[in-house]
Amino acid sequence: GAISGCIKGGINYARTSPLIRSVSADELNSIKSTGQFSSSGYSESKWFATNSTDASKWANWFGHSDYVGIRVPKSTFKNFYFDPLLDNIAPAYNIKISYLNSILKGIWYF
Length: 110
Hints:
Elements: H1 2-14, E1 16-23, H2 25-34, E2 45-48, H3 52-62, E3 66-73, E4 81-86, E5 90-96, H4 97-103, E6 106-109
Antiparallel strand pairs: 1-3, 2-5, 3-6, 4-5
């Protein structure tokens, strides 16, 4: 029933981690309309910060004012490329778009 659904939801939430990306208005509109990430013809992967403070550093760097948050399974992090100081700004994970879209467990905008 409802209780087991809540328990399963909580377990699934605990098995995922959030990542955050600053995005342009065009990228945000694309993600909102499709529910997925796309290459836009120039990149086959996306970079994500581990927290909103670091994501805002890239937002300032690129002149973005929008953000996309995602939840992905903790078990998938081994398949991401990690840079401890991307662009001399902050740590970030790089995820191939095709893989990213297949593992998304949640997405939100802010």
